[in-house]
């Protein structure tokens, strides 16, 4: 059996996976795309030799990326999903009965095509009538959106390097804010609190220059370096810590209790932002 060695970007660890079979290998305009099968994780999607999702545990990430803002918002109708070409976030967004429209904005169409073929349970929502797929840069999408009619913007990008960097600038966050409704919410991952603490803090600081409400929550993601993954969440008005709608969707991990416990305690958060937490 061959092995796949993942050297995680900006992290002092390497992961070694058994590879039963290479199911797909190709290159788009933006990145190398590989699908492998592992005896434990099942099918795995790799972009530029970095694991993006696995069949076994993708729901941890997709549920926590999606349902915090969706349950914090009183009635999310229009949602923008930027990135996440595998379709997992779109699938989770569509579980909410209030949703009328999902703009699925992905710069790399080949990731969508590969995911449709090899990850049908993840990409299952792509053909829903409420979903409009836009093959373009997410930064351009929010820049050109002139009306404030979006209830939630969810950024499921690759690591904060390369072509994804345009999704982590002050200009981008301002454009996101401008397209949100008065109760609108925004969320993005910000890497690992173990290995990328400075990036986590940097994104919080940038968001605080733009949004009145900025916060941080975390989730355990076994296949991502550092395992303790951080999410930056912001809004024009509402605290994302509060669950405003009854929990009535089907999930494997997320729940009302997980929602509340995912947020860093206020005192710990303040120490983090003051750079007084050492690890």
Characterize the structure shown.
- The chain is globular.
- The chain has two domains: 2-54, Spermidine synthase, tetramerisation domain (Spermidine Synthase, Chain: A, domain 2, Roll), CATH 2.30.140.10; 58-273, Rossmann fold (3-Layer(aba) Sandwich), CATH 3.40.50.
- The model has no long low-confidence stretch (mean pLDDT 93).
- The termini are far apart.
- Helices cover 27% and strands 32% of the residues.
- It is built from eight helices and 13 strands.
- Strand 1 (2-7) and strand 2 (14-19) form a beta hairpin.
- The strands form three sheets. Strands 9-8-7-10-11-13-12 form a seven-stranded mixed β-sheet, sandwiched between helices. A four-stranded antiparallel β-sheet has the order 3-4-5-6, covered by helices on one side. A two-stranded antiparallel ribbon has the order 1-2.
- It has helices at 58-72, 88-93, 109-118, 138-143, 170-179, 197-208, 256-262, 266-273; strands spanning 2-7, 14-19, 21-27, 32-38, 42-47, 50-54, 78-83, 101-106, 131-135, 150-156, 180-192, 213-220, 228-235.
- By secondary structure, the protein is an alpha/beta fold.
């Amino acid at each position: 059996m061959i092995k796949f060695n993942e050297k995680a970007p900006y992290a002092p660890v390497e992961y070694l996976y058994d590879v039963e079979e290479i199911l797909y290998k190709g290159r788009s305009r933006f990145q190398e795309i590989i699908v492998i099968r592992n005896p434990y994780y099942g099918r795995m999607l790799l972009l530029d030799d970095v694991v993006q999702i696995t069949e076994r545990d993708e729901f941890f990430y997709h549920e926590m990326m999606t349902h915090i803002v969706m349950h914090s918002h009183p009635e999310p109708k229009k949602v923008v999903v930027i990135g996440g070409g595998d379709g997992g976030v779109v699938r989770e967004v569509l579980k909410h009965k209030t949703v009328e429209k999902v703009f699925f904005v992905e710069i790399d169409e080949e990731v969508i095509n590969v995911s449709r073929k090899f990850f049908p349970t993840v990409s299952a929502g792509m053909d829903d009538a409420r979903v409009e797929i836009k093959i373009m840069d997410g930064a351009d999408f929010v820049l050109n959106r002139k009306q404030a009619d979006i209830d939630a913007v969810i950024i499921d990008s690759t690591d904060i390097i390369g072509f994804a960097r345009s999704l982590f600038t002050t200009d981008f966050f301002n454009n996101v804010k401008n397209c949100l409704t008065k109760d609108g919410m925004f969320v993005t991952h910000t890497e690992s609190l173990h290995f990328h603490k400075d990036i986590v803090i940097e994104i919080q600081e940038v968001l605080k220059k733009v949004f009145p409400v900025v916060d941080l929550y975390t989730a355990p993601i076994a296949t991502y370096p550092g395992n303790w993954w951080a999410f930056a969440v912001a809004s024009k008005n509402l605290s994302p810590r509060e669950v405003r709608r009854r929990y009535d969707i089907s999930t494997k991990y997320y729940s009302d209790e997980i929602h509340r416990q995912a947020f860093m305690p206020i005192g710990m958060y303040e120490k983090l932002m003051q750079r007084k937490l050492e690890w």
